[in-house]
Structure to design on (706 residues):
């Protein structure tokens, strides 16, 4: 018996090889989360450079060329390095725990898909030290900026994107296979927790659009090195084609970055409102509807390229249609809280802030969806305000809320609630001070991606920069809270949150290295 | 369906990935077809193949056609339309020239890419003869007149009374030499 029993009961390997060779979903989840936290600070440092330069009009600190590299790298690092890996990390930790599975379905693949990432980002970051500098064409890498006018480092950028894409695709395959094959006996699809549902849908989006991103960067590579003319009018290509292919990937991508956050919020709100989620079925269907619509709205990013009226109308109406399922979700979260016995611990605060601020970001999105109005807003700071409102207090707050919510189960320790509240309020003030004034300068016509600006935008930009410094430094407090929790936090209870339901809370605290080695019994309520 | 092919099995999922990667590339010809069908991006068609009965139905309706000559930034030839603007009635056949001279001290092959604005008019501008159909090799210092013969299809939508035909000249010597097109 013993060899088998030993493999079941052994703990983690010792030393660094534990982390390099691990196939354990909890270890890999931790690796992903730590990696994305590091990337958050690297991308945040770049945002610091941007905001320091924009603190006052005129050129003070950096050259415009370097400023462009900073905006480009900030976007790439935050999207592909911080937000996406953080969600994959959450999926690794939580999906097996929430469906009663012993591990992910493809554990070695899981290890591989994580370990691609450090190499991909080392390659991307190394471009900063290359002659000609890092990519400077914006994270959207529009041709011909990324082909004819690209710095030599564009090749490294292309391969880094390929590697990130492979990592995301393999991670997504793993999530799908796990959810379909490893649910606890008796758990039907409509019994899945919403976090799992939203990750399942996200994973299908990843499978569908990351290959399109791979295709478009491959075309860029071929245009740069192999003399093709996909995007070059001289050879019969069309630069507008680039934008179509790119946004066919990139619009579903923005839902990839927010759907798992929807799932997190749908777990947290019922716990702290002490009521079951209102409208579970509607929530699932709304998520599916959002995912479907995300494939047919891409050209709303390019209203100004000279589309015919019918095209503008089609993309305008389909875009506005997304407000319906999104509204259903917001309505259901609010209904869940309605007459609930609410308490406001840190995860709940971040969740409520998510609902309020994401809705603001959604509404500015509706303004941008109006094609005739978009001609005014296009490429201004209004767009920057919009997507930061959905990404920072949207995705990032969702991730932070998830970490506070599940950290007691992961680490077995309780975080310092007082510090958590400080972290929340400083982040909340910082995020609004940073991004709200951007709406005003954007509507007044300040273009995005410029290192200098007209004098009338000076006051709002200074406010924005102060907010950004506040928000950025506040995240150091987050790191301090995490370290303090793990090293000297009070022991957490088996059920740290009174209202929490779900399989992940049925395992001991902290969650043992191996859980659900025998499938759990489901007690249907 | 075989179980390993299901869209929820690893093989099935990898198959979706491969198909979507191919779809990314398939968007290139699809985009061209889509633009051709809808006349979206102002690309004009090749040489007009139909019969030209230009004088058959003289029309009251006159259209202004403006000509623009652009050089790509890597080609500093002199390139200008003979007339900046022509008024003609629909169905009427017109001939004009673009004058061009190679200012380099070496032979260069150029290609002109046409574009029509508003793009909805692209389908109704029919070129019977155009220098943009061929590669244009010019010896060092050589000057030339590029001919253009065209007419406007009477079916041009009523709300369009003015259209712009722009040509951009690209240096394709390198592509031409390497045998590619």
């Amino acid at each position: 018996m013993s060899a088998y029993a030993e493999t079941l009961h052994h703990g983690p390997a010792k030393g660094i090889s534990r982390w390099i060779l691990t196939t354990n979903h909890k270890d890999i989840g931790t690796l992903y989360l730590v990696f994305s936290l590091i990337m958050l600070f690297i991308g945040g440092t770049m945002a610091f450079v941007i905001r320091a330069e924009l603190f006052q009009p005129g050129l003070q600190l950096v050259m415009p060329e370097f400023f462009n590299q900073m905006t480009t790298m900030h976007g790439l690092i935050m999207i592909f390095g911080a937000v996406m890996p953080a969600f994959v990390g959450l999926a690794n930790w939580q999906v097996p725990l929430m469906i009663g599975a012993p591990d992910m379905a493809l554990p070695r693949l899981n290890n591989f898909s994580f370990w691609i990432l450090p190499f991909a980002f080392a390659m991307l970051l190394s471009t900063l030290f290359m002659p000609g500098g890092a990519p400077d064409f914006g994270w959207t890498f529009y041709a011909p900026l990324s082909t004819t006018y690209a710095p030599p480092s564009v090749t490294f950028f292309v391969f880094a994107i390929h590697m990130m894409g492979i990592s995301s695709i393999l991670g997504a395959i793993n999530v799908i296979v796990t959810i379909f094959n490893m649910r606890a006996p008796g758990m039907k699809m409509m019994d899945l927790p919403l976090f799992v549902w939203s990750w399942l849908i996200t994973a299908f989006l990843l499978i569908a659009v990351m290959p399109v991103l791979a295709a478009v960067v491959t075309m860029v590579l071929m245009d740069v090195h192999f003399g093709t003319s996909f995007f070059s009018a001289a050879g019969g290509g069309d630069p507008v084609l680039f934008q179509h292919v790119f946004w066919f990937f990139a619009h579903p991508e923005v839902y990839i970055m927010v759907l798992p956050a929807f799932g997190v919020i749908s777990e947290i709100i019922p716990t702290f409102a002490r009521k079951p989620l209102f409208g579970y079925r509607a929530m699932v269907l709304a998520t599916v509807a959002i995912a479907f619509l995300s494939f047919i709205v891409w050209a709303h990013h390019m209203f100004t390229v000279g589309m015919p009226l019918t095209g503008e109308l089609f993309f305008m109406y389909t875009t506005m249609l997304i407000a319906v399922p999104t509204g259903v979700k917001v309505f259901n979260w609010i209904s869940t809280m309605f007459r609930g016995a609410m308490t406001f611990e840190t995860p709940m605060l971040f969740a409520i802030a998510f609902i309020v601020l994401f809705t603001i970001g959604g509404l500015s999105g509706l303004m941008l969806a109006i094609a005739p109005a978009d001609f005014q807003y296009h490429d201004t700071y209004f767009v920057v305000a919009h997507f930061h409102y959905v990404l920072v207090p949207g995705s990032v707050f969702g991730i932070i809320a998830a970490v506070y919510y599940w950290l007691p189960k992961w680490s077995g320790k309780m975080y310092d609630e007082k510090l958590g509240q400080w972290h929340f309020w400083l982040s909340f003030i910082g995020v609004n001070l940073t991004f709200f004034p951007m709406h005003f300068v954007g509507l007044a016509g300040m273009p995005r991606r410029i290192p200098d600006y007209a004098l009338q935008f000076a006051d709002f930009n200074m406010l924005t920069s102060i907010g950004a410094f506040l928000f950025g430094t506040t995240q150091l407090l987050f790191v301090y809270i995490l370290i303090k929790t793990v090293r000297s936090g009070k022991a957490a209870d088996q059920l740290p949150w009174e209202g929490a339901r779900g399989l992940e809370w049925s395992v001991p605290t902290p969650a043992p290295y191996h859980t659900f080695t025998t499938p759990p019994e489901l007690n249907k309520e | 369906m075989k179980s390993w092919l299901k869209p929820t099995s690893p093989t099935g999922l990898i198959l979706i990935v491969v198909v979507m990667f191919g779809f990314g590339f398939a968007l290139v010809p699809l985009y061209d077809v889509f633009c051709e069908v809808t006349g979206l991006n102002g690309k004009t068609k090749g040489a007009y193949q139909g019969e030209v009965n230009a004088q058959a139905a003289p029309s009251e309706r006159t259209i202004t056609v403006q000509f623009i000559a652009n050089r790509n930034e890597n080609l500093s030839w002199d390139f200008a339309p003979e007339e900046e603007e022509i008024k003609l009635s629909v169905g009427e056949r017109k001939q004009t020239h673009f004058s061009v001279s190679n200012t380099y001290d070496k032979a260069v092959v150029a290609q002109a890419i046409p574009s029509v604005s508003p793009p909805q008019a692209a389908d109704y501008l029919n070129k019977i003869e155009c220098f943009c159909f061929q590669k244009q090799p010019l010896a060092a210092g050589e000057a030339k007149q590029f001919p253009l013969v065209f007419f406007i299809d009477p079916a041009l939508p009523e709300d369009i009374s003015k259209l712009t035909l722009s040509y951009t000249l690209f240096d394709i010597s390198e592509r031409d030499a390497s045998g590619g097109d």
In short: The CA atoms of residues 68 and 166 of chain B lie 4 Å apart.
